[in-house]
Amino acid sequence: MKSKLLDGSTQKTYALVLDTGDEAMTSLLAFAQKNNITAAHFTGIGAFSRVALGYYDWEKKEYLRIPVDEQVEAVSLLGDVALEKGQPKIHAHGVVAKRNGAARAGHLIEGFVRPTLEIANGVAGPSAPRIRFSKRSGAH
């Protein structure tokens, strides 16, 4: 196991509100790039008109796509922002609920917002160490 202490005294928290039609992963990446965010964590709730989740197949080293092509509640969205090859990368997992309460969960590949998605994004300050993705750590 590896760990790094992040300096909580310098953390900033942003409230992001995505609107109908916004794509969640694209929006989060654009926000991170625009604001030079290199280390952050986030949580969110809201809803999607459709979403694609993924299950990481360790043997194939790829995500198996789990499409949910209907209106769903985003009951839990969590993830982080870290550096990969010097650029911010979003890693998110989510749980969505269908009309009948059945849940689907996995790695968030894409999600189209309807009507809203509210995200609290906690950004590590400039004195915090930077987290970096590496091939050795796998996809997760």
Largest sheet entry: 6 strands, antiparallel
The count of helical stretches stands at: 1
The CATH topology:
60s Ribosomal Protein L30, Chain: A
In total, the number of domains comes to 1
Order of helices and strands: EHEEEEE
Summarize the structure.
This protein is mainly beta. It has one helix at residues 24-34; strands at residues 12-19, 40-57, 62-68, 72-84, 87-97, 103-123.
Structure write-up:
The longest helix is centred in the N-terminal third of the chain and has 11 residues, at 24-34. The protein has one helix and six strands; from the N terminus they run βαβββββ. The mean pLDDT is 88. The chain is globular, with a radius of gyration of 15 Å. It has a single domain, classed as Hypothetical protein, similar to alpha- acetolactate decarboxylase, domain 2 (60s Ribosomal Protein L30, Chain: A). It has one helix spanning 24-34; strands spanning 12-19, 40-57, 62-68, 72-84, 87-97, 103-123. The protein has 140 residues and is mainly beta.
Topology:
Blueprint (H helix, E strand, L loop, with lengths): L11 E8 L4 H11 L5 E18 L4 E7 L3 E13 L2 E11 L5 E21 L17
List keywords for this structure.
6 strands, mainly beta, 140 residues, 60s Ribosomal Protein L30, Chain: A
